[in-house]
Amino acid sequence: MPIGFFKTHTVTTTEFEPEAVFESSGTTQTINSKHLVKDTSLYKESFIKAFNLFYGIPSDWCIIALLPSYIERENSSLVMMADQLMQQSGHPQSGFYLNEYEKLQAVLTQLEKQEQKTLLIGVTFALLDFAEKFPIPWNHTTIMETGGMKGRRVEMTRAQVHEILCRSFTKSTIHSEYGMTELLSQGYSKGAGIFNTPPWMKILIREEDDPFAVYCAGDKPVVSGAINVIDLANIYSCSFIATEDAGKLYADESFEVMGRLDNTDIRGCSLMAL
Q: What backbone phi and psi angles, to 5 degrees, belong to 10?
């Protein structure tokens, strides 16, 4: 199903009163997607199990979210995920930050001295702003970008963003999260922009000019085209989504996100444009 249907239709299986309605941030010129969620506990189970799979238990981490413009919104799936992971973390310094870069720098410095394993998850433009103000090595902090310029900066490729962040924070790799309002599962990259998914989420590639020409991992050594996602956590909406992202799929089921397809909206939490 084309992902754009979430902007124009109510996408559900069975009839229900939604427990939550996740809404994409978008811009003033775009129509936002709406994802009606029957049971948020299913979403929480999905992202917590995925986090455990890729990063271990949240209680081992201090989790800090740099998400200005997102935490002010009531219907952000990213904010719900970060909030629940912070609760699972239980660390007293876990929390949300707006534009409080000096406070964030002070907290991270304290955590570094304690050699506390820390995850800083942030929207791209805010991480770049923070990197400009405080280009300091973070040895015990994992930096994870979620994409998104929201018109705050000139759009860049992921590689360009990661190069800046690696240089500013003296990191060898920057992590990434691949998720969206229309899905209840996420893929993660631990470096080089190469993503992997949990077992209940699968990536396929379709030819941009032929939506019925779909390739699985292993059909070719590398397949390039538009990204399709199977997300089995989406049991009450649609588990088979044709996104507007361009990507590459490798034989081992890892994948890259190359940017947006031509003539599609730049989403508020989108990955960088080509």
A: -85, 110
Helices (H), 114-255: 124-133, 158-169
Which two tokens mark 179? Answer: 């998720």
Say if strands 118-122 and 141-145 run parallel, antiparallel, or are unpaired: parallel
Read off the pLDDT of each residue in 139-157 and give the average, rounded to a whole number.
80
Mean pLDDT of the chain: 92
Look at the pTM and tell me if it is higher than 0.85: yes
- Structural domains of the chain ordered from first start: 5-194 (3.40.50.980)
Per-residue burial over 191-204, b if 16 or more Cβ lie within 10 Å, else e, is eebbbbbbebbbbb
Q: Distance between CA atoms of 244 and 271, rounded to whole angstroms?
A: 11
Query: Could you tell me the maximum CA-CA distance found in the chain, to the nearest angstrom?
Result: 54
- Please check the confidence at residue 62 and state whether its pLDDT lies above 60: yes
pLDDT in tens, 252-267: 999 999 998 865 554 4
Calculate the alpha carbon distances from 146 to 19, 122, 130, 158, 174 in Å. Answer: 25, 6, 15, 10, 11
Question: How many residues in the chain?
Answer: 274
Residues sharing a CB contact under 8 Å with residue 36, sequence separation 6 or more, in sequence order:
10, 11, 12, 16, 18, 21, 236, 237
